[in-house]
Design brief:
nine-stranded mixed β-sheet, single chain, Aminopeptidase, Aminopeptidase i, Domain 2, alpha/beta, globular, binds manganese (II) ion, six-stranded antiparallel β-sheet
């Protein structure tokens, strides 16, 4: 080794592709972990489905509903659900909750098309659902692909109907049509935000009329008849319903080497799944470990089931109360300000097709591990919690000690755009928090891409954080 090479080895910080440092056995481990992840993606396409899945797995692993416990002791494993849309799972630690908890927070809502409250209409003898898009999407990406319908309808008599159409083999799917290129000359000259307008995101439901020549909207009536026969619902039941249209295809390996996963909803179910797996396997530790899977991140977290909800503080207060002789408010305040959190959300991986929006020294890359982001935000770090160097150092040394491959990255060049996560809402509770998640290609598209290597490093990272 020349003197320069020795110096380079000693002084430079470079990140290599993770596959250069692992053996065949480790690669197998990564790939087999991701089979479970792909099943999760296929089973859980809405926040409600994620919560159902998490309850089932938690119970199978010995966790019980917090409601059933009068008192809590170290080693107890509990979960608690908020309005069927968010769930908090915890393993009680040896130390009092007032000395702080360790939280991994991920969101389980993803961009999609929600049905409006009066969704049904007919035009030129085709019946449609009107939708209102949820989260930041490129609207044109949602046309000409198969869509599935997932949701909850509560009938007039109070009976709850859970719907999932378009996922099973043989199910019909739904679709939003796009204009043929032959007639799209003027459409194609338009602004990409307008080439498919929000009010054109209408989902095709059917085309057979109810047999009565005098009727108007006979196709719509026929669809309502089918819905009534199958599920016992009427048009009025849609007013209170929550129905989400999501891509109808399942998770797939991408690439000849199968190193990547393509699927809908990986933002942020990739962090939700890895965090869930980490808490399910967590042994009781010094601190109480918490996995919080939360709703409404994609629309700003402002909802009773989003990160801004007091639900999180309520549960922490309950954990204090159930572990103390006499509860007081300062106990909760201490529990919050002594806690640490990984805000586990995805980031953008450098896409060679669009590398002009990234600053190469400070972007995340596929296969270089779980990505830490000291801050997010836009412009002059607007709307971010800028993690302290002390906590960045604490997390990077924890990951290093556990042999977790990690990288750091920013979401794009300065002033190119930006984004935020739930981190800021944990930071205002005076919790130490840093963003820590998996880099994706095609984020917020119907088919997002993650790298299996990074998915596994996120899991290992959360396991190490909980130790
Ligand atoms: Mn996200
Ligand atoms: Mn997102």
């Amino acid at each position: 080794m020349t003197k320069a090479e020795t110096l380079q080895k000693e002084l430079l910080y470079t990140k290599k592709n993770g596959y250069l440092n692992i053996n065949e056995k480790e690669k197998k481990e990564i790939f087999s972990f991701c089979e479970g992840y792909k099943t999760f993606l296929d089973t859980c396409k809405t926040e409600r489905e994620c919560v159902m899945f998490a309850i089932q797995k938690a119970e199978q692993n010995g966790f019980v509903d917090l409601k059933t416990k009068q008192k809590l002791k170290p080693g107890d494993k509990i979960y608690t659900v908020n309005r069927n849309k968010s769930i908090l799972i915890a393993v009680m630690g040896e130390k009092p909750v007032t000395e702080g908890t360790k939280i991994v927070a991920a969101h389980i809502d993803s961009p999609r098309l929600d049905l409006k409250q009066n969704p049904l209409f007919e035009s030129n003898e085709i019946a449609y659902f009107k939708t209102h898009y949820y989260g930041g999407i490129k609207k044109y990406q949602w046309t000409a692909i198969p869509l599935a319908l997932h949701g909850t309808i509560i009938k007039q008599n109070g009976e709850v109907v859970t719907l999932s159409i378009g996922e099973k083999e043989g199910d019909p799917v739904f679709n939003i049509s796009d204009l043929l290129p032959h007639l799209a000359a003027s459409q194609m000259k338009g602004d990409a935000t307008k080439i498919i307008e929000g009010e054109k995101l209408n989902v095709i439901l059917g085309s057979i009329p109810f047999q009565d020549e005098k009727l108007t909207d006979a196709v719509k009536l026929n669809i309502l008849k089918l819905l009534n026969e199958e599920f016992g619902i009427t048009e009025k039941d849609f007013v209170s319903a929550e129905i989400e249209m999501v891509p109808a295809f399942g998770a797939k390996d991408v690439g000849l080497d199968r190193s990547l996963i393509g699927a809908y909803g990986q933002d942020d179910r990739v962090c939700a799944y890895t965090a869930l797996q980490a808490i399910l396997g967590a042994e009781p530790a010094q601190e109480t470990n918490i996995c919080y899977l939360v709703d409404k991140e994609e629309v700003g977290s402002m909802d009773s089931t989003g990160m801004c909800s007091r639900f999180f503080e309520d549960v922490l207060a309950e954990l204090c109360e159930k572990t103390m002789d006499t509860y007081n408010d300062i106990a909760l305040r201490k529990a919050l300000n002594q806690s640490t959190c990984l805000s586990s959300d995805v980031t953008a991986a450098l896409d060679p097709n669009f590398d002009h929006v990234m600053e190469k020294n400070n972007s995340a890359y596929l296969n270089k591990g779980v990505c830490l982001m000291k801050y997010t935000g836009a412009r002059g770090k607007s709307g971010t919690s800028d993690c302290s160097c002390e906590f960045v150092h604490h997390v990077t040394s924890t990951l290093d000690k556990a042999g977790v491959v990690w990288q750091t990255g920013e979401l794009g060049k300065v002033d190119e755009g930006g984004g935020g996560t739930v981190a800021q809402y944990l930071a205002v509770l005076n919790i130490h928090v840093i963003d820590c998640g998996v880099p994706l290609l095609s984020m917020h598209s119907p088919f997002e891409i993650s790298a299996k290597f990074d998915v596994y490093q996120a899991y290992k990272g959360y396991v190490a954080f909980y130790k």
